[in-house]
């Protein structure tokens, strides 16, 4: 599933996308686009209509995947530390 994400630095607040959204999920607030994700059916029409390229379809899963990647990197560091401790403990046992 993909959701439209607006880059507020690029959005001109022209309202072109608001006109074409079949679900009434878009509105202009303070000259910037606001997306109501409770109404959006992810049809992607708004992404195609914006001539400024302010809208992009993104996967809501991406942040989760990125988060898992960070957790995995953290686990690798922990495993490395444990291996080092194990080596040091073995050395200590040998010299005991
Ligand atoms: S069409 Fe593009 S520039 Fe216009 S309101 Fe929508 S996102 Fe903003
Ligand atoms: S993806 Fe479709 S339903 Fe969702 S905001 Fe854009 S035009 Fe509306």
Question: Helices, strands, pairings?
Answer:
Blueprint: E1 3-6, H1 16-20, E2 26-29, E3 32-35, H2 45-49, E4 55-58, H3 62-95
Antiparallel strand pairs: 1-4, 2-3
The structure holds iron/sulfur cluster (2 copies).
Explain what the structure shows.
The protein has 96 residues and is α+β, with helices and mostly antiparallel strands. It has two domains: 1-60, Alpha-Beta Plaits, CATH 3.30.70; 61-96. Helices cover 46% and strands 17% of the residues. The protein has three helices and four strands; from the N terminus they run βαββαβα. The chain has helices at residues 16-20, 45-49, 62-95, and strands spanning 3-6, 26-29, 32-35, 55-58. The strands form two sheets. It has a two-stranded antiparallel sheet with strand order 1-4. A two-stranded antiparallel ribbon has the order 2-3. A hairpin with a 2-residue loop joins β2 and β3 (32-35). The longest helix is centred in the last third of the chain and has 34 residues, at 62-95. It is rod-shaped and about 80 Å long. One iron/sulfur cluster (SF4) is lined by residues 4, 21-23, 25-26, 35, 40-46.
């Amino acid at each position: 599933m993909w959701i439209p994400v607006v880059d507020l630095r690029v959005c001109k607040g022209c309202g072109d996308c608001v006109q074409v959204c079949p679900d009434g999920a878009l509105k202009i607030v303070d000259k910037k686009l606001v997306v109501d994700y409770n109404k959006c059916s992810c049809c992607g029409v708004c992404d195609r209509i914006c001539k400024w390229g302010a809208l992009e379809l993104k996967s809501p899963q991406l942040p989760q995947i990125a988060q898992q990647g960070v957790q995995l990197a953290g686990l690798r560091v922990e495993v490395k530390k444990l291996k080092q401790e194990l080596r040091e403990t073995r050395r200590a046992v040998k010299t005991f």
